[in-house]
Amino acid sequence: MQKSPAECTTMADVRAEIDRLDRALMSLFAERWGYIDRAAEIKRPLNLKADIPARVAEVRENARRHAIEFGLEPGFYEGLWAQLIEHAIAHERRLLGEDEG
């Protein structure tokens, strides 16, 4: 049964909840990745590039803003999202054939 942080009375409780959340995060990342694949499918006939700088800036700013909203350290989460974005762009480039010489 899910517990709030305050309801955890042992380290086993805390670890179980962290493990539960880590699995949920991976599920969300997998869902997000499906949208990355779909973006490449949509971009191909429109002749759009994988890297759209205005959108990259928007997603990074969203990460920063959401981190602040949830009381998290914005620089860390913007950096984490920068890595996600970089990985997604590299993946889209492969799907779109942009990395072929």
What does this structure look like?
The protein contains three helices and no strands. With 101 residues, the chain is an all-alpha fold. The chain has one domain: Chorismate mutase (Chorismate Mutase Domain, subunit A), CATH 1.20.59. Helix 1 packs across helix 3 and helix 2 packs antiparallel against helix 3. It is elongated, with a radius of gyration of 18 Å.
Set out the fold topology.
Elements: H1 11-46, H2 53-69, H3 74-96
Helix pairs in contact: 1-3, 2-3
Number of helices: 3
Mind telling me which CATH architecture this is? Up-down Bundle
CATH class: Mainly Alpha
Structural class: mainly alpha
Mean pLDDT: 96
Regions with little confidence, pLDDT below 50 for 5+ residues? none
Shape: elongated
Q: Any idea of the CATH topology?
A: Chorismate Mutase Domain, subunit A
